[in-house]
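Exam revision sheet. Question 4 asks you to relate a sequence to its structure. Input first:
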Amino acid sequence: TVLLEQKTKITTAETCLNYWQVGAENAVCTGKLNVGEKRHTSTNSGDSGGPVVTMDNGKYIQVALVSFGVENPNHDNKHPSVNTNVHRYLDWIEEMLVSLLSLS
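Answer key, structure tokens:
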């Protein structure tokens, strides 16, 4: 397995809602949605669960987990990919970590 990296753009919450009927509180949508582009930078099959990160002051910050998108983004460059908003679940993640660590 080879780890790959791809640069894409985070779309607006409105774009995400328009295409997939998911709100910004739960999702971060990504993808370049220019109709004239030959290649659509988005998630592909097998990417689910992978990290979506951004650079902040020289450090990578995870903002989401890859969730779903269109089956073949190179043939459909109109739909953004949907990613789970990690910040929405930080309290739950912390609770689970504390709970698991207390078991050891």
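Marking note for examiners. The two ends are 32 Å apart (CA to CA).
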